């Protein structure tokens, strides 16, 4: 099924509805034989605490997303407003990624890790479900690494935003 999706009125309405529905932002990373890969996601959600599980989707199974889908484990970094430029880099094909100045290190298990993320969830895939041109990933959380807490970064109307300054953790 490599056909390009044909826009429908319902699909366009769905996109418009979700443009004004804020979502948290995450950077998902993995280590592959060809080097580290990563992408920005605004579809991460908690599914279960026993077993600890999350869900997210990727829009295609090629490039960084394809490499991530084939990795044995990956890290979902829940990020703050200080990471908005980094989120944009990981959302832009060909942009600079995994530089020392961005703060990346590697976990003992090999995955790229951003220590300044509010939380890093080390995961492995339980199941994938193809839906149109996207793939839904259900993942078990193996480890939770807490980081410094800042103001959450959200994605809305095709841009990154920060919650109001009166938001406290």
UniProtKB/TrEMBL annotation:
Q: Which Pfam families match?
A: Flavin_Reduct (PF01613)
InterPro entries, A to Z = Flavin_Rdtase-like_dom, NADH-dep_flavin_reductase, Split_barrel_FMN-bd
One Gene Ontology term of the molecular function aspect: riboflavin reductase (NADPH) activity
Indicate the enzyme's highest-level EC class: oxidoreductase
Give the enzyme's EC designation: 1.5.1.42
Q: Which SUPFAM superfamilies match?
A: FMN-binding split barrel
Give the superkingdom in one word.
Bacteria
Keyword Acetylation included in the entry's annotation? no
Query: In this protein, which residues make up the domain named Flavin reductase like?
Result: 18-162
Q: For this entry, list what GO says about its biological process.
A: pyrimidine nucleobase catabolic process
* Keyword Oxidoreductase in annotation: yes
Q: Which UniProt keywords apply?
A: Oxidoreductase
- The leader peptide range reads none
- The identity of this protein, by name, is FMN reductase (NADH) NtaB
Q: Which organism is it from?
A: Microbacterium oxydans
Recall the taxonomic lineage recorded for the source organism. Bacteria, Bacillati, Actinomycetota, Actinomycetes, Micrococcales
